[in-house]
Amino acid sequence: EIVLTQSPGTLSLSPGERATLSCKASQTVGSNYFAWYQQKTGQAPRLLIYGASRRATDIPDRFSGSGSGTDFTLTISRLEPEDSAVYYCQHYDSTPLTFGGGTKVEIK
Amino acid sequence: DVELVESGGGLVQPGGSLRLSCAASGFTFSNYAMTWVRQAPGKGLEWVSGISNTGDDSGYADSVKGRFTISRDNSKNTLSLQMNSLGAEDTAVYYCAKVRSGVAWELPLDYWGQGAQVTVSS
User: Fold this and answer.
1) Of A35, A44, A101, the CB nearest to B108
2) Do A99 and B106 touch (CB under 8 A)?
3) Per-residue pLDDT tens for A16-53?
């Protein structure tokens, strides 16, 4: 099983600032089978990024993903108040699929 | 528009059983694999199970293997999760989710239902 470790646990930033979220895998994730999701309080998760760097439908271009192998990053270039949420990474390289523990992004 | 609506959640005693359903609409259900993901209170997401588009193949998390069974009825556009031998650790919101594209469940999830609450308690 691939274990995903996200950091930091919480990120507190002001609107307009840049957020950098990290996710490290316990083993190589093949073919960049890697995704990021956003979950706002009381809502279902929403797919942001898949294939490590491809934005899902209707996702603003301030969200970008990068990385390969065991190290992946989600960057929010200019934070907006509506970006307040918990962000989860996920691999879909093999069963069982696993999620990271999440990074909470707070907007000051 | 794609819509996924879970039902069948509720309160069940430890050791009991429950069957969740997910009604799908707005897309050709038989063309896509489907999954179940759960979220315990105040916790993160946990992938539970996935099923291929035809229902011929499925996979499970170790935590539910042998107790949960995923199935689908493509004639009724319905996904199901039969949960047996439930314990307190199974208390969670259960989401059904559609894979973004393809017939295998090892794919990103682009549409999610609103979730069904399952509470295991005496």
Assistant:
1) A35
2) no
3) 999 999 999 999 998 889 999 999 999 999 999 999 99
